[in-house]
């Protein structure tokens, strides 16, 4: 690839690679002892691991990627310890190890567990903690006996390019060079920028327009205008801009091309050919294609095409790596057996000390028992054994592939897909096809995926410590700390993101019931509203026109038991506050609810939480609220993978979670056989066509699967990187110390953390706090508030400023390599 570009990444955003690896001469000799496994190092590493882990969770549910934390954590560790008065390379190595180990859990958690929502389950915190911690511990345990063979014996053969880059950063920091200010600047700018549009709503989150529409002539004839079904849009996101810069112009362009296929080719084609249909196609609710907007067409049809392409791309990636996988496992076993046959020296050097093999054996046995017996996991003994066997295999494979091409190109998704396929096929042969079996299959694949991801990262961190002269035993202890501390909070981040964007929406399915009625309930507060027809007529408004404005303020207009209107809220509000709620009418008038009719306190209504699971019902899989008779009244549409993108004119925050959608599709496809395979096969053949053309199908397929609004800012970031590479030279400017790369890492972390905090505010106050800082909402329906919410140029202007800052930093910023003092 030209200009020193890293290889096309599957799951992780690649970090810059060192031009020349260090020779095997530890920076700190084995005979020298320095403070290493310190309490402050473990604490700082845990905090940074949680921060970058949270940002990776956010990215994974948005676009199916994670960001490698090794370089930013190392840079920040050096700067923070130096600010405290002293910095030590071995202590900084521990911080980098803990931080990157914690972040490595994010992909497995954020890619796999949201599939539970798509299978009709909730994300449980204890389940998430056990999956993350057990998978992470399994990855570390399996790497302890492999360290000597893969890291020591094959030094010079397995380069571990990103581990070598991290070692270079640590050495430069020890000698006085670093550029942490760029990361901090990006973090601050990205966080404030994200808060400005996602919290304060000072400008649009997504800018764009439809390219065609239907208008009615004076004779009442519908007439097409423009490119019907086509649309373009872009999320003005600091995280996605940073991702595009880091992955570079080639991958960013291929990903964006997938979005072009979906939104400018497939959706218009489906709209054109389907506009004359008089009956619904694949739509149980009876929606005709001619009545669908582009996003609805995507959700109903293109999503399956994209899923087929993504699954095929992942399998092709795995098949392409098959020779490497087989050789990796064989050589890993050979080196393990060879190292175990040697007699241990009576006194090992500090740099040769591992945790004893008894820890591995006892830990593996304890893992099997814990996985089998832990109630939240619902895993039987056979699946527990399958986890450990597949875990050992894929950890060995992952560690070796990381050594050859780096963790960025490690096909973790392919390994998870392979585990899922194997597990589901075994289950199918045994007749295990119930909803509980699908839950168990996903848990099995998630733990193996986390183990594989963490195993590759662990090998990379051990290589870094090997080069700088760290103590393996202490590194391995630090890895366990990183896994356990991040496991405590990574699941919480996922739950916060989901619950913060979860919306309860009226939805009925006459004659249908849920599969399971749970123990949970939701309380709804009602306020009978004696609406005056005269008051409505005097203001020239109909009751139906008030539903949207009131919904924005947390009030649902519904029909009460007696047929009279009532207001409903999921928050307990004094009747006086409800009566004083102001509504902005289309005419521009502002009117209080009480001016349209008397509001009185009503009774509380309790709904039971139910779940639809399986293929034997026309009701979409998901969570619902039902009455005592089991009739469905509301859908609890999740923030991650939710199927409803807007209601009553209010756009809802949704995280597509493409990898989770893929995993759920595989489970459903094998165990329930309910997929529209014609559409899935279209995606399969699109991916195969791209492979035949010599184009990597996976980033293209991910782009086709995601909304074009997500791939567009990635493309912009890639183009900024292209300009920087042309002006400064790719190999020199985009080393591991590149100012553009560091600023992009800050954009990603800052924007993602701000998004998580906004979601937390939404949950903590049930929306009250976020409404309190919503500037357009506080201003009411005024021309200025509409300008803030609707102006595309206004939003693009802010994004342009963010982009220019990245461009100037990439062009003019001082590289860490230039800042390194002469020896």
UniProtKB/TrEMBL annotation:
Taxonomy, superkingdom: Bacteria
Any one GO molecular-function label of the UniProt entry: oligopeptide transmembrane transporter activity
The membrane topology term of the UniProt record is: Multi-pass membrane protein
GO cellular component term of the entry, any = membrane
The alphabetical list of record keywords is:
Membrane, Transmembrane, Transmembrane helix, Transport
The record ties this protein, via Pfam families, to:
OPT
Q: Spell out the InterPro entries in the cross-references.
A: Oligopep_transpt, OPT, YSL-like
Which residues, by range, are in coiled-coil regions? none
Annotated TM spans:
42-61, 67-85, 97-119, 125-144, 260-281, 301-322, 355-375, 381-399, 411-430, 477-497, 679-698, 704-724, 745-764, 794-811
Q: Tell me the compartments it is located in.
A: Membrane
What NCBIfam families does this protein map onto?
OPT family oligopeptide transporter
Q: What is this protein called?
A: OPT family oligopeptide transporter
The organism named in the record is Archangium gephyra
